[in-house]
Amino acid sequence: MNYAIILAGGIGSRFWPLSRYLEPKQFLNIGSKKSMLEESIHKVIGLIKKENIYIAANKAHRQKIEECINKFNLSLNNIFFEPEGKNTLAPIGVLSQKIYRIDPEAVIVVLPCDHFVKNNQRFLKSLRQGLRIAKQGYIVTFGITPKRPETGYGYIKVKSKKTKFYYAVEKITEKPDLDKARQFIQDKKYYYNSGLFIFRADVMLKEIRRIAPRAYKTIIKIKNKQDLNRLWPRFSSVSLDYAIMEKTRNAAMLIADYGWLDLGSWQAIEETVKKDKDGNIFRGSCIDIGSKNSTVWSQKRTIATLGLDNVIVVDTEDALLVCAKDKAQDVKRIVRILKRKNCLSQI
């Protein structure tokens, strides 16, 4: 049977100051009238039964998660509340083991909740194709033709020969530096890694056992909430991409042709929000004279701008961000500095 794991445990630090620890981006309605988490559930609910949809979330967001799942009549038993953030390997591994115990033939779709899809019918068609390929024992990922060098994305390099439906993956490189990213986009064998995966539960667990045996030994010991709380600190904070996908030998890639966008940074909203004739995006109370290709986002106060060019301005009640567009991926560094300075109210 088919299952889904929706990853909703992050804090969206690249969307600071709008995205905060207690109000992360998955609960914001950026580019849609629904929150990102609601959109993610809506995307898969036509393909996967409600009782087979699992959500990995931070326990600090329990109330917001419950409000969201009540709209879809999802079971609270399917919500995996992480004791603390450990990136994606740990929740995916633990949930894969839980699902495997229920259904040894389970095929799982893992999707982050901060992705925007323009064509949902094509998206579902791609998922169906990916499910068929995953049943053959592959870990399926989806590649996007790169538009610009991005240091916030992983990259997939495919082998030259394509089968009827998919490419065999030569290697996956997570979040390269800018020089490497520039090299990658010059090579037509490279694609952005969407971070969406499909696999048989048993296949993923075997790969974790082979590549990350310490994590696997912890995963198989977790059978209840008490085990989870006791053993969770043993996990390293590492993504599935770094821990497994960079090292696996049986990855396959489908090209995403459904209008994919990772809403991971302020620069990304350009493709979801309508611009004016000068390429600007204004949200909230804004007055502008002569700006071009800039984003100005106000929650309450009026923002007045003059002659900006490729600049992002985001104003909230207690913080103001002003940055060059080409530095949008580095906003997360500000969050790290705030943490070091113990400015908890602004994180």
Number of domains: 2
Mean pLDDT: 89
CATH topology of the largest domain: Spore Coat Polysaccharide Biosynthesis Protein SpsA, Chain A
Order of helices and strands: EHEHEHEEHEEEHEHHHHEEEEEEEEH
Strand content is 25-35%
Structural class: alpha/beta
Major sheet description? 5 strands, mixed, barrel
Counted beta strands: 17
What is the CA–CA distance across the termini?
40 Å
- Write the CATH architecture name of the largest domain: Alpha-Beta Complex
Total number of helices: 10
Strand order of the largest sheet: 6-9-7-8-10
Q: Tell me the quaternary state.
A: single chain
Q: How large, in whole angstroms, is the Cα Rg?
A: 20 Å
> Residue ranges: pLDDT <50 for 5 or more in a row?
none
Assigned CATH superfamily of the largest domain: Spore Coat Polysaccharide Biosynthesis Protein SpsA, Chain A
CATH classification, class level of the largest domain: Alpha Beta
Query: How much helix is in the residues?
Result: 25-40%
Tell me, what's the shape? globular
